[in-house]
Amino acid sequence: MAEQYQVSGDSAAEISASIETGVLQGFWVAGAALPSVRVLAGSLHVSPATVAKAYQELRQRGVIETEGRRGTRVRSRPAVAVRRAGLYTPIPSGLRDLSSGEPDLRLLPSLAPALAAAAAIQNPPQGYASAVTMPELVDAARPRLLAEGVPVSGAEIVVTSGALDSIERAFNAHLRPGDTVAIEDPGWAALIDLLAALGLRAAPVAVDDHGPDPDSLATALRSGARAVVVTVRAQNPTGAAVSAERARRLRELLSGHPGVLVVEDDHAAELAEGAPHCIGPVTGSWAFVRSASKPFGPDLRIAVLAGDETTVARVAGRMRIGMGWVSTVLQRMLLWLWRDPEVTALVGRAAETYGKRRRALREALRAEGVEVGGDTGINVWVPVPDETHAVAALRDRGYAVAPGALFRVSSPPGIRITISTLDPVEAPELAQAVASVLHPAGSLPPMR
């Protein structure tokens, strides 16, 4: 138990609130161990059942997690805004930061012309009654998606505030706390956090260069998964992309589970090399999410969600009684960006640049005897025996990378290296540093 903070409370609600306050104020940092149920019950003079219920409430809110023999701990990214303790260790000056997972800001188009154009069009001002998903944006989105093979000819389309917002709204349209969701492992850290915050259970699905493994997904479906999330390309953190053959196999598998919600995440959109290979619609409920944040910048928090009539109607209906709609200013900005040929060319060059940077590092690593995969996206996943040692050793060599624990449920350890700002000439030196960590002097690299 944290020495400077004592849990208090006589009821489960009071105890959970006290622990959450301790996390929020930074007395318990991410990963810190909480006392066992019996120990805390004894110190508070309450029944173990009361503490167990408090812990259950905290788990359902995404504040803590239970990891078998490791006991109960604060989640790596608890679903509360920590005031005094950062969730990430600051990157010391002088380190080459390859841990962020963010695009290269130098390759993003300026939003100023799009904003000026949207402001000029937004006259007279938008009223409440007419503020919805703009028909002209839908009319522009549909042929863009169809041109890449996304089957949206008969799909409904709504605009949301980004990829994660789309996924959360699709979950809320079909799932309830306690339901199981099959997710890629390793996979998107924010999605793992979202499941915890919504009280949903994660069923890990192994992923390789071609996407989710069908046998692993079949196991998750047999365990009762009611939803599946698939990253169609530029998978974070591995760089995997669903191949045509893998999409066929997954489609065949999911056709036997008509009640399962299938969510396809295309967060990288125009920045990913190669068209996406879609799985749906193959079940009764389907959503395809195309975000604008990666190619056009994080400030453009907008995504297009296409799906079956019921899913989209529920998403749009829930938005109507909450946030209402995505700003029509943002919608007009996205429409302008889509239509501008210079922006299209700029995004295309950015995709090519990321491809060159990723391939340079992958080839340099392979030359050093380090086998890595991933053909799309801005990240490279490197399997390692010990994440803590690898991250610390690379830091000693001047590089900051992300520990794989943020992205894993039960898959083997690894590290994520973000290549978005990595110039190809830097790749050989970085690869040598990684190899020196994995294969210290006197040891031999694995056979290629």
Automatic annotation (TrEMBL):
UniProt xrefs under PROSITE patterns: HTH_GNTR
HTH gntR-type domain ranges (all copies): 9-77
Keywords: Aminotransferase, DNA-binding, Pyridoxal phosphate, Transcription, Transcription regulation, Transferase
Keyword Transferase: yes
Pfam families the UniProt entry points to: Aminotran_1_2 (PF00155), GntR (PF00392)
Cross-referenced CDD domains: AAT_like, WHTH_GntR
One MF term in the entry's GO annotations: transaminase activity
SUPFAM superfamilies per record: PLP-dependent transferases, Winged helix' DNA-binding domain
Family matches, as InterPro entries: Aminotransferase_I/II_large (IPR004839), HTH_trans_reg/aminotransferase (IPR051446), PyrdxlP-dep_Trfase (IPR015424), PyrdxlP-dep_Trfase_major (IPR015421), Tscrpt_reg_HTH_GntR (IPR000524), WH-like_DNA-bd_sf (IPR036388), WH_DNA-bd_sf (IPR036390)
Domain of life: Bacteria
Signal sequence annotation: none
Family: In the C-terminal section; belongs to the class-I pyridoxal-phosphate-dependent aminotransferase family.
Record-given protein name: Aminotransferase class I/II-fold pyridoxal phosphate-dependent enzyme
Species annotation: Actinoplanes sichuanensis
